[in-house]
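Continuing the batch. This is chain 6 of the set; chains 1 through 5 are on the previous pages. Same settings as before, nothing changed between runs. Recording input and output for traceability.
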Amino acid sequence: MQFLNALSLHAVSHFRIPELVPLDGEISYAELSAKTGVGLVALRQLLRQATTNRIFQESSKNHISHTSTSRLLVENKKLAALIGYFTDTLKLAAAHECDALERWPNSLSPRETGYSIGVGNGGQASFYEELQKDVKQKDRFSNAMEVWATGDAYKIETLVEEYDWGRLGSGMVVDVSGLSSITGNSCAIRPYGQPPVNLSCFWE
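Output for chain 6:
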């Protein structure tokens, strides 16, 4: 069942369906099929699966409309980026991870991963190298990581405020979180009276 949830959410994100559904109205499956290029039967099955998780609702026969959950994917672009990153990029990497483990059983190279196999460039480029080639993907990743960092379990404030940075002395902190280095920038901006952090931001 969890796989089916992920599948329907991937389709919703990949075909940008939330943007095609009127915020204050409804749309037929047939019209959505024409706009997305997805077959009517398959599209209806995927969206009906999505409705079991309160993503859209069948407001009338063969028509769907937004719920408060699906509206978020239109109104909160960074949340939509996170969903796209999870269901597209991470799904692709996970689907080929066992292939990577068989091909490179002892590798620690960032280029020898399920993701590199998934994008058809196995062993030749890391995730971040591939990301550099696509501005839209890079922006999506940056937005997704920003949302991730605002969750209660991963709040940057906890790291900034609770860790004893003074014990590092003149030691260097290397941020490998990627792209806009939200975490590194937050750690570098220390409250008045606290020692500065010697920070270097790095990603492959």
